[in-house]
Design brief:
The chain starts with a helix and ends with a helix. Strand 4, helix 6 and strand 5 form a beta-alpha-beta unit. It contains 14 helices and nine strands. The chain is an alpha/beta fold. The protein is globular, with a radius of gyration of 20 Å. The strands form two sheets. The protein has a five-stranded parallel β-sheet, with helices on both faces. Helix 3 packs parallel to helix 7, helix 3 packs antiparallel against helix 8 and helix 8 packs parallel to helix 13. Bound molecules: 5-phosphoarabinonic acid. 5-phosphoarabinonic acid (PA5) binds next to loops.
Length: about 350
């Protein structure tokens, strides 16, 4: 059974409850952006979201949520420096849950050096201190979560930053609607939902395989979130396959895959994607069957772009925790990630 008791048996920090609260987080985030006092900036160079891992995910999802409503450039800075073209005409959102991530702090300093307007989303740490020193607006993210469980906050912060940069319209109404859908889906896919819900069924099917999550357009962004959540919460390797590009290279390797390992494929689908991408997804699934243990399809729910994106994100987050339960892993344990950060900090 994937019920409340079996989840509680492994989930020592109640991360599952935070995942189920996605809708509440999104509504709260809107208010927190407003309370930060961040003002619009005419950023003709667009928006750069600097962050890593669970704190970069909002930036990775935001273009998918906006689609053609994004009218200025948007880039992710997931390293130690901003792109070469960053400057006074670009708004830089530095997002770090802990406020201590060295790459994000380096990007903050790079933004200072280039005279770029800044905003910060964090719970505190050195990043909040530098922002306060410089009079930079801070979106106060609540503490006590795993950074990746704060996806509602990082997504809404990035959407709002795009608006403030003049790169997108306000999506406040759409955010409220997507939050309401997340509430409904959390009840359907959560531990009190049926044992044959999509989330529980997909987790059971992926158990014992190396998950490969594919998708096109907004589903590609969600696929990256699935992969990262499965890596961190279920502690297994997992990979993303981005369509249509995968049809020009990866597809060739699939017939040999069964000789090399047990792969479980989930193809995420957006019913409103380009019909050629929908057809490609279907045909890809048929071809991949030759080498995968299991090939599953999961379709976005909801009407607006943001609803469809949020539905796929929530489904993946829940699958990752159910997978952790099936594996007997506590989703809070990210040992190798902590080891790497500690080793870097010592040098
Ligand atoms: O989910 C996690 O714990 C990680 O992916 C972190 O988000 C990542 O290491 C960056 O840390 P932070 O979010 O504190 O900037």
């Amino acid at each position: 059974m994937l019920d409340r008791d079996s989840v509680a048996a492994v989930d020592s920090t109640a991360q599952f409850a935070e995942v189920l609260d996605l809708g509440t987080h999104m509504r709260d985030a809107l208010w927190r952006v407003e309370s930060s006092g961040a003002a619009p900036v005419d950023a003709s160079g667009g928006l750069i979201v600097a962050g890593m891992g669970g704190s970069a995910i909002g930036g990775r999802l935001v273009a998918a949520g906006l689609g053609s409503r994004l009218t200025r450039p948007l880039a992710i800075a997931d390293g130690y420096e901003l792109p070469g073209w960053a400057g006074p005409q670009t708004l830089v959102l530095c997002s770090s849950y802990s406020g201590r991530t060295e790459e994000t702090l380096a990007c903050y300093d790079d933004a200072v050096a280039r005279g770029a307007p800044r905003m910060v989303a964090t719970t505190g740490g050195e990043l909040a201190e530098r922002a306060r020193r410089d009079g930079v607006p801070v979106i106060p993210i609540p503490g006590g979560f795993q950074p990746r469980a704060a996806v509602g906050y990082s997504l809404v912060s990035a959407l709002e930053a795009a608006r403030l940069a003049g790169a997108a319209p306000s999506l406040a109404g759409e955010i409220e609607a997507a939050a309401a859908l997340a509430d409904e889906l959390a009840a359907e896919w959560g531990p009190d939902g049926p044992e044959d819900s999509d989330a529980k069924t997909i987790a059971r099917a992926l158990h014992g395989t190396i998950p490969v999550i594919g998708g096109a357009e907004l589903a590609a962004a969600a696929a990256y979130r699935w992969k990262s959540e499965i890596n961190e919460n279920a502690s297994v390797p997992a990979f993303t396959s981005v369509l249509p590009e995968a049809g020009h290279n990866e597809i060739v390797g699939w017939p040999a895959a069964r000789e090399l390992g047990r792969f479980g494929v989930v193809l995420l689908e957006d019913p409103r994607a380009n019909p050629r991408n929908r057809l490609r997804t279907e045909l890809t699934g048929e071809l991949v069957e030759a080498g995968a243990e299991v090939v599953l399809h999961a379709s976005a729910r909801g009407v607006t772009r943001l609803e469809r994106l949020v539905s796929l994100v929530l489904l993946g987050d829940l699958v990752s925790i159910y997978l952790a339960v099936l594996r007997g892993e506590d989703p809070v344990d990210i040992g190798p990630l902590d080891t790497l950060k500690a080793a870097l900090a010592r040098r």
